[in-house]
Specification:
mainly alpha, 8 helices
């Protein structure tokens, strides 16, 4: 590999890590386009991004476990469907042309912009409901977790994106969860966005 490409990848990884820390996104959102720009085939970029996400997510998971945020039963209801659906996503990614895969990735990023705005509205609505002592949730939480995990897994296998792009918005929308945000102000987060 060319030393310049290694430097670009290193800086891309650093940028991805910073975005992950501030906004909960980064891996697939930053690394897939960067890898494609460096000459990787889209399917290789997705696979490389997925491996990088696995490594960084493991570190974050360990820290969240230490802090007591992980509820094993709830995690399994997300993780098992994601595990199987990711295999389907990888299979589908192999079937699509590079052009179709890149167009799908671009469409997913556009949808994510909408989901980000929707997520802010839902969180504001949840805060109002909490002030009125109401619980906001869509249907059966078990089914919502399975849908969230399956959708996240499918899109992770297909496009190499992680939880910040798919699972967090779906948990907010379907389960009424509020994302536990890193310790920076909401104003600063909005400015970064």
């Amino acid at each position: 590999m060319i030393p310049t490409n290694l430097l670009i990848l290193g800086l891309g990884g650093l940028c991805s890590g910073i975005l992950a820390g501030f906004l909960g996104i980064g891996g697939g959102t930053v690394m897939v386009p960067l890898l494609v720009a460096l000459g990787y085939q889209p399917i290789q970029a997705v696979a490389t991004s997925a491996l990088a996400i696995t490594i960084t997510a493991s570190s974050g998971t360990l820290q969240n476990w230490r802090m007591g945020y992980i509820k094993p039963q709830k995690v399994l209801l997300l993780a098992l469907p994601a595990l199987f659906a990711a295999q389907v996503g990888v299979y589908l990614a192999e079937q699509f042309s590079s052009t179709l895969l890149l167009l799908g990735f671009g469409l997913l990023m556009l949808i994510n912009i909408y989901l980000f705005e929707l997520r802010k509205r839902v969180i504001a609505k949840q805060k109002n409901a909490e002030n009125n002592s109401e619980k906001q949730q869509w249907g059966n939480p078990t089914i919502a977790r399975i849908i969230t995990g399956g959708t996240g897994g499918l899109l992770a296998g297909l496009f190499g994106v992680g939880g910040g792009v798919i699972m967090v918005p779906l948990q907010i929308l379907l389960l009424g969860k509020r994302k536990r945000l890193p310790p920076i102000s909401q104003e600063r987060r909005n400015n970064i966005s």
